[in-house]
Every structure is written in structure tokens, then in C-alpha cells.
Amino acid sequence: MTEGGRRGGDAPSLAPQAWRRLSPALWLAIALVLIALGLAVVVGPVAAGQATLNGLVGAGYFALGAVGLTLVYGVLRLVNFAHGDMLTVGMYIAIAIMALGISFWPAAVLAMILTALIAMLLDRIMWEPMRRAQTSTLQLFLVATGLALVLRYSVQFFAGSQVRTVGLDTISSVDLGPWHLGRLQLVVMLVGLVTIVLAGIALRYTRLGKEMRAVADNIALAEVTGIDTRRTIRVTWLVSGAMAALAGILYAASIGSINPNFGFTILLSLFAAAVLGGIGNAYGALAGGIVIGLSQEWATLFFNPRWKPAIGFAILILTLLVMPRGIFGRKKARS
Amino acid sequence: MSVEFWIGVGVIAGIYAIFVLGLQINVGFTGLLNLGQAGFMSIGAYAMGMLVVDAGWSLWAAMPVAIAIAVTAGLLVGLPSLRLRADYFAIATIAFAEIVRYTFQNAGFAGGNQGIIGYDAEWRALAAWLLHQLAHLGLGGITQLPLFLAVWFCFGLCLMVLRLLAASPWGRVLRAIREDEDAAAALGKNVLVFKLQSLAIAAALAAIAGFFLALNVTYLYPSEFDPTFTFLGYAVLVLGGYASYGGVALGAVLLWSLMEGLRFLHLPISDGQQGSLRFVLIGLALILLSMLRPQGLLGRKAEMRLRR
Known about the structure:
A: two-stranded antiparallel sheet; B: mainly alpha; two-stranded antiparallel ribbon; 12 helices; globular
């Protein structure tokens, strides 16, 4: 079934539908560029460009973390409070694999696979039975909270609660004209942005991607159209887990050090990205992640960097107050 | 040591019990998933601390004003966010709590990471007098006992008031909103106002819990109010049971006895690992209870419904 058809439009209305879907993205991109240009005028191009570069580094892990959160929201109808800790689990698995003598990037790929499998296993033993039993929002929330505690403190049990360095070269940097960026941060930025684009393309054009979006949008409708929802849900968890692990790894690589609480502390920024993009909307989460990453760094041009995480919360609250459906969302958000 | 130790545990359990009474009226009786309770608690505690230390108020005058400030915060948070769907409301409230915590951590007026100290002189004077009186009963020497008695006395008072409220027509409207808010609205009840009142009461209870927390730790520090406090509060809630105020006390005592009792098992692991293990077990308990006995130990299943 075609995109336009799923949205209830007839074939002739396909073009305006596509335009309407594109327009918020275009609108957002124009707004971000204008803000960047405005900042360049206010604080000078060097400072503004540097903040933008740093922001794009963050955009990668926020977007990848948020896309898993939003896809799973569609499956569970609940924001998964354990998602932040999946980032932590992914990174610490990577560290454990590196301890075996495997170098960073292969370890990262292995960690993504293992975290994806953990996410799917958790669906099998916890989420699927709960879905079948049609449990209440409250129960789902409590189970997610419990799982978050189990994951975070299991990591802490085995790895200790101390801050640990990732053991990567975080010192050497590259000059890009007047701007500097850590060599590793540049890699993080590229991996993040490339994965965002690939994820966007996969969601847009592959059959599985379409099915995942359909399930996230409305499970019952997806099932009626003949999608094997159980299989799609499993794949959704796999993707969500792998993306979470990658986000955690990119975060750790760009910061250079982590502790077992880091996933939980950036969870609210991931919520912010998902809500900003319209919860349940995968493109929206990717776009929202870019906005959160950029605005947190842009904010440091005016505020003490200590306030950086608060910017994400402020955007979250503003979005909920002003346009709770988010930029891309169409779902009813008010009760 | 042992009596003193368990009295200390009882103090913490009592603080949680008052804190969770607020969650109970929101979650168990109104159907609101309030995740900002730690935020209201820190606003109450910091308002009290700042009124005493910075403004030179008496502790006893500062407490009611701090409750009023926390209630105002509850109304300000609730007015826009209660119009949102249940899950969005949950996210909005936790974001609020985190903003509060970051503000106290980073803003100059709240002492930042150094925190606030020196607000409890009047309480310590009263506690010393109480301790002296207790000595006549042969209970002298247990320094935490006055605070223990004060916390649980206060819990008892709050419990009585809440039970009266729950049995009143007002309480029945709250439950009607929990069951079916459209039906309640159709009967002419202003749903938003009732939800606001429920949230305001929760904020007041959080502030009271915050006072006792402040008196127990003797200095205010932002990380005491991180979201873990709220999440542990939910563990107490699910352990005790939904729509049961008495269950809250049971849940709080059980949770903290288990948490602290684990120390005496002498497991062959480090102290840090033992600390982690406590939270792993609480997480497991939360998962298993929610899946197997969602109404909690003393809760009633018929009362357990949140809008999906």
C-alpha cells in the first residue's frame, strides 16, 4: 500500500500530501539556518560556527536515541523510561568487549548487535505479555521504571559507579578553517549524521521501514492492512536497541568519559527530541534530535554551559505547552 | 547501635510515606501520573531553608509559607500541563522537576552545590527538649527518636485528613474522574479544577516531606531531590497498593526495611555493589509486582484504572 493511500488520500491528492509532509521539514531547516545566520551576526561567525559544529556532534546521539524512543512509543503507547538506560547498557557492553582486546569500532558494532538482541529479548519476556494483557498506562510506566533501575544498577554492579574514560584519543583535533573539532568528535558527527540520513531513507523507502512507521502510527490499522505486526514489533525493538547502543557509544566517544547514570540523564533530552518531532513520528524524532543538539550548544553562547541540559527541558515544556503535537505529529495530544 | 539504626530507617520510611501520600491522591484516586513530586518537595524544602537562613524567619513561620509556595508551584505546573494527555502530563512533570533541580544546582540564590545549611536550630532545640522528656520514659539517648515521632505523627494527621477527604463528595468526584473523566464532566464537574486541587494537595504533602528530609540531613543539597526519589516513591506506592492510604505506610516501611536490611546479609561483595544490588532488586520487585499483582499488597483491583 502506498504512503498516500495509508494516510487516506486518493491518488490525485498524493502530491499535496507529500508537500504537506515535506513543508514542516523545510520550514524547520530554514528556521535553523536563519537562527545560525542570526547568531553569526550577533556573536560573530567563528563562535557561532563552532557552536553549530558542536551542536551537530550532539545532534547525532540525540537523534539516534530519540528515534528508538519514538518507534517504541508507537508499539507500547508509553514513553519508555528504560530507553535512556539502553544507551548506557550499549556503551558498557562496548567497554566490556574492548576489555577483551578488540578495538573500538568493531566493539561498537558488536555492542549494537548485542543490545538489539537484549531489547528484543525484553520484548519477548516483558512487553509482549503486557501488550497482550492490555495493561494500563500506569502498569507500563511502573514496569519501564523498574526495568530502568535494573539496567542502570546492573551496569553499576558490574562496572562500578565511578566515572570512567573510554580509553580513546580525545585530545587530537582537526582544524576546519577557523573552527576546531576533536578528531573523534568529527567521526562521531559524521557517523551520527550519516546514520540519521540512512535511517530516514530506510524508514521512507524500504518495506520494513514503512511497516515500522505504520505500526508506530496505529497498530490496529497496520494489522488490518496485512502487516505482520508481531514481526514488525520485534524488528522495531531490534532497531531501537541498536540505535540506542550507537547513540550511547557516540555520546561516550564525544564526551570521552561516562558513568552508569549518563543514559538516564540524557533521557529527558531524548523525550524532548521525540516530543518536539511529534511523538510516534520517526522523521520527527530525527529532526527533533538535531534541534535539541544544536540548541543546547547555541545556548552556551549566551548562558553558562552548566545550563545546557536545562535547555532541552525548556524546549520540552515549551513544545508541550505551545504545540503538543510537535512539528511533524498529527496525533491528538490534549485529553 | 541497632535501635538507633532502625529508628533512622523509620525516619526515612516516614518521610517517604508522607511523600507517597501525595502520589496516592494523584495516581490512586485521581488517575494522574505525577512524576514531578520530587520537584515540589525541593521547592518546599528550599523555600523553608531560604526563608530561615536568608530572610531570618522563624522555622515555624517559614513552614506554612513554604507549603503555600509549593502549592502555588503545583497550580502553576498543573494549569497548562493537566490539559495534556496522561503520558504527556507525566513527561511534563518530570521535566519540571528536573528544571527545578538544575535551578537549585546552578542558580546563585540557592547555594548551588554547596547547598543550604543552618535552618534547623529551632528544631534542634525542640528535639533536645523532647529527648529530655523521653528520658523520663526511659527512652533517652536515641537522638533520632524525636524526629521519628514527629514524622509519623505528621503522617497520621495527613492520613486522617486524606481519608476524610476520600470519603467526602469531593473525594467521590476525584474517583469519578479517575474512572471516566468525560462522564464526570458530563455531570457538570469541572474536571480541570478537581485535578488541580489534587495536584495542589500532592505538592503540599511533598513540601511537608521535604521539611522532614531537610531536618533529617541538616543541609539541603540539590542531588537529594533527583528523580530517583519520585521513582522510589512509586515503588512504595505499588508495594503498598493503589487507592489505599494505609498501604502507603506499609509500603514505605517494607521498602526501607528491605533496602537497609540487605546490609545485614553480609554478602561477599563490595559496599558499592551492595548499593547497586539494592536498586536492582527494587527494580525487579517493581516489574514483578506490576505484572503479577498490579494492585499492590493492600490495593483493590477494582480501583485500579488509568486512562490509556
